[in-house]
Design brief:
The structure holds 2 protein chains of 2 kinds. By secondary structure, chain A is α/β, with parallel strands linked by helices. Chain A contains 20 helices and 22 strands. In chain A, helix 7 links the parallel strand 6 and strand 7. Chain A is globular. Chain B is of the alpha/beta class. Chain B has a single domain, classed as Pyruvate-ferredoxin oxidoreductase, PFOR, domain III (Pyruvate-ferredoxin Oxidoreductase, domain 3, 3-Layer(aba) Sandwich). Helix content of chain B is 39%, strand content 22%. Chain B has 8 helices and 6 strands. Chain B has a 6-stranded mixed beta sheet, with helices on both faces. The radius of gyration of chain B is 16 Å and the shape is globular. Chain B starts with a strand and ends with a helix. The chains are: A alpha/beta, B alpha/beta. At the A-B interface, strand 1, strand 8, helix 11 and strand 20 of A face helix 1, strand 2, helix 2 and helix 3 of B. Strand 8 of chain A pairs antiparallel with strand 2 of chain B, so a sheet runs across the interface.
């Protein structure tokens, strides 16, 4: 593909490259920051690998498990919370083992740059008894993924490659190699291995436990775990991006850098501990390695000086270990306004949020760009827990409070999120005689993760045309009789429809349909401007929280550079003061 | 060399960091570029880091570690000052973009940012990159104008920068981007 062998690659891109070089032929995923680009790169660059967006992580993993059992090398990628959704197949695929190598790339998000929690994937790796590898830069991303496929086959186990935001979303230098020809493993029907009924599963669990001790033995001496001896006053056990921070903060220290983070190499850890005077464990999030060291009876310093919360940094390690204060000469001491993320200019969700806020409803939100409506001034979302939760939670509120409450609450959920796991909540509400009102925000794309297609868009990950899930028919098919489609920029109809459906004594679905303003084909007629002679400064237009409109020098102004001309502001102005620019 | 790029999601900081990465690689350095994706891209504060040298470990630039801060927006440049190393330099676009707390009247956009920066004895260059980009025919070329200013502040050959830009931007935008770069370089 290129004669250049050394290049800068994003961690995620290097993971994709690793899968390519390893001869992987099936890659599946549901998009989720910071993991999304893995499968995007595969789709864009490597036609040798079949790739797909699955409706959710559970399906994505099941597709990969099938491909593996039949003999192919298969990979499945997701963000950390995606693994909760895929935990069901994971825990039992651990029992069945694999055919061709099965690699699950899971990207954690310490610091929650774009997530609702910061759970540590290693804990699920331990619980499901599978091997977990952790790379610390892009080169390792590529190398570890290749290694993961081999180890998966060697030990007959799924292998998790744990990534994190700073590994996935940092570029560093990678040396690439050619793709290996991979001969599919021969598939034979083997119910004792692949049918997990109690009788078979009991036997398989024994194998799983044996497998773990074999992997542990392997981890003691394999090259993925490395001792780097230096000054022995300070010894550090670490893994992943924390290794990079620690290495920069403590250049003279000795290191045990773990590439395999489950199971842990006990003898190697003890051997290293004996060589150093003071032993630190530096790991982001949970004290996994630290607790293990303590169980081995080692004296270690860990979370008592670090933290299980958020991201680590060079500065933080220097301060905690060396007591070195890092100070800035130019720090700003006055309070300056924060700049939280906002819904974009022209965002189709804005109309719905505006009306929900106006009606003062209790709004159960979901995961997507529209969650940003929770912020001021819209303040139109009051709960957000996980993918698909809005519908179930709305139903739960009704069952706790009675039918009348349902007239004051709605669930709002995006198109992709609805298909991911909102549909089951809808079935529940219909089946159990609820009267919920559900608004599906159909912007014809998976927005927050950067525009991925999904079953409702009618295109595959490769941009090929496919059958589109018809959201109206889907809702009707599960028994919803009241399904309305509205344009969220037609505020009048939208408000009227929401009021009607709130009062209906049965489940109703409103599909708010308008494509994401950032999609290339979305064009508006022209920019807007304020006629200052007509403006009464009532600030009604500021309540739609458009980043292009602000109040400056006692005047409402529209920023021409940002305005896309969606015209929603014109609809909320009662004085006709917002005009089309000449 | 530690270069930090700050701005508002959607301003093109990502592309700028990728161009810088290519420049560092072309010069034979070890290099790491750290980006921000996902939620914070939606009009929030964004920070990207480019580090290069003989060996780079952490992909992140911490407090008082940046040799150069390239700010795409005034408030964001002001906010990032603590990352500047003593003797480092700030290159700052004069454009103001109001954050939501300012739009809704809960906070005020700080006044006299450039005077305040001067008072802190920070070496800085102010650039109206938005106007320059407009004059070049594409307002989105703000990032490349600023890279031009940055390039002038390094010892790396101009041609290396131009090649990195040509390798990064789509064919049809090459000319406008190289033009924008040169305009920045001439400041």
């Amino acid at each position: 593909m290129t004669d250049q062998k050394r290049m800068l690659m994003l961690g995620n891109e290097a993971v994709a490259r690793g899968a390519y070089e390893a001869g992987c032929t099936v890659a599946t995923a549901y998009p989720g920051t910071p993991s999304t680009e893995i499968t995007e790169y595969i789709a864009q660059k490597y036609d040798e690998i079949y790739s797909e967006w699955a409706p959710n992580e559970k399906v994505a993993l099941e597709v990969a498990i099938g491909a593996s059992i039949i003999g192919a090398r298969a990979m499945c990628s997701m963000k950390h919370v995606g693994l909760n959704v895929a935990a069901d197949p994971l825990f039992t695929a651990s029992y069945t083992g694999v055919g061709g190598g099965l690699v699950i790339c899971v990207a954690d998000d310490p610091g929650m740059h774009s997530s609702q929690n910061e759970q540590d994937t290693r804990m699920l790796g331990i619980a499901s008894k599978v091997m977990v590898l952790e790379p610390s830069d892009s080169q390792e991303c590529k190398d570890f993924v290749k290694e993961a496929f081999s180890l998966s086959e060697l030990f007959d186990t799924p292998v998790i490659v744990r990534l994190s935001t700073r590994v996935s979303h940092s570029q560093s230098i990678v040396e690439i190699a050619d793709r290996n020809d991979y001969t599919y493993k021969k598939y034979e029907k083997n119910p004792l291995k692949y049918v997990m009924m109690p009788a078979m599963a009991r036997k398989r669990h024994v194998e799983v436990v044996k497998r773990l001790s074999k992997i542990k033995e392997f981890a003691e001496s394999c090259g993925l775990n490395k001792i780097e001896m230096n000054d022995t006053k300070i010894g550090v056990i670490t893994s992943g991006v924390a290794y990079q921070y620690a290495k920069e903060a403590l250049p003279d220290a000795s290191f045990l850098k773990l590439g395999i983070v489950n199971p842990l190499p006990e003898k190697l850890i003890i051997e290293f501990a004996e060589k150093v005077e003071k032993l630190y464990v530096i790991e982001e999030l949970e004290p996994v390695i630290e607790n293990h060291c303590r169980r081995l009876g080692l004296e270690v310093i860990g979370k008592e000086i670090f933290t299980p919360i958020g991201e680590y940094s060079v500065k933080m390690i220097k301060e905690a270990v060396l007591g070195e204060k890092v100070e800035s000469f130019a720090e700003v001491n006055e309070e300056i306004p924060l700049r939280p993320p906002v819904m974009c200019t022209g965002c189709p969700h804005r109309g719905v949020h505006y009306i929900l806020s106006k009606l003062g409803l209790v709004v159960n939100g979901d995961i997507g760009c529209y969650t940003l409506g929770a912020q001021k001034p819209l303040s139109s979302i009051h709960t957000c827990v996980c993918m698909g939760a809005s519908i179930g939670m709305n139903h739960g509120m009704e069952k706790a409070m009675g039918k009348d409450f349902s007239k004051k609450s709605v669930a709002i959920i995006g198109d992709s999120t609805f298909i991911h796991s909102g549909i089951t909540g809808l079935i529940d509400a219909v089946y159990n005689k609820g009267t919920s009102t559900i608004i599906i925000l159909d912007n014809s794309i998976t927005g927050m993760t950067g525009h991925q297609d999904n079953p409702a868009t009618g295109y595959t990950i490769k941009g090929e045309k496919t059958v589109a899930t018809d959201l109206v028919k889907l809702c009707q098919a599960v028994g919803v009789r009241r399904v309305k489609v509205v344009d969220p920029y037609d505020l009048e109809t939208l408000e009227k429809t929401i009021k009607e459906e709130l009062n209906a004594e049965e489940v109703s679905v409103i599909i708010s349909q308008r494509p994401c303003a950032l999609l290339k084909y979305v064009k508006f007629s022209g920019k807007k401007c304020i006629d200052q002679s007509l403006c009464k400064k009532c600030k009604a237009c500021l309540r739609i929280a458009c980043p292009s409109i602000s109040f400056k020098d006692n005047m409402v102004v529209i920023d021409k550079n940002q305005c896309v001309g969606c015209g929603l502001c014109q609809k909320v102005c009662r004085f006709g003061a917002i005009l089309d620019e000449e | 060399m530690n270069i930090m790029i700050v701005g508002v999601g959607g301003q093109g900081t990502l592309l700028a960091s990728r161009i810088l990465g290519k420049v560092a690689l072309a010069c034979g350095y070890d290099c790491k570029v750290s980006e921000v994706h996902g939620m914070s891209q939606r009009g929030g504060s964004v920070e990207t880091f480019v580090k290069f040298g003989d060996k780079v470990y952490s992909p992140i630039i911490g407090v008082a570690e940046a040799d150069i801060i390239l700010a795409f927006e005034a408030l964001e440049g002001y906010r990032a000052l603590k990352y500047l190393k003593r003797g480092g330099k700030l290159i700052i676009n004069t454009q103001n973009i109001d954050p939501m707390p300012v739009i809704v009247g809960e906070a005020k956009y700080p006044e006299g940012i450039f005077d305040k920066i001067r008072e802190k004895n920070v070496e800085f260059t102010q650039v109206n990159a938005t106007e320059i980009a407009k004059a070049c025919g594409n307002i989105k070329a703000v990032n490349v104008v600023l890279i031009g200013v940055l390039a002038k502040n390094t010892k790396i050959d101009k041609e290396v920068w131009i090649k990195a830009i040509e390798d990064t931007v789509p064919e049809k935008f090459k000319e406008v981007n190289v033009n924008a770069f040169l305009k920045g370089y001439e400041i």
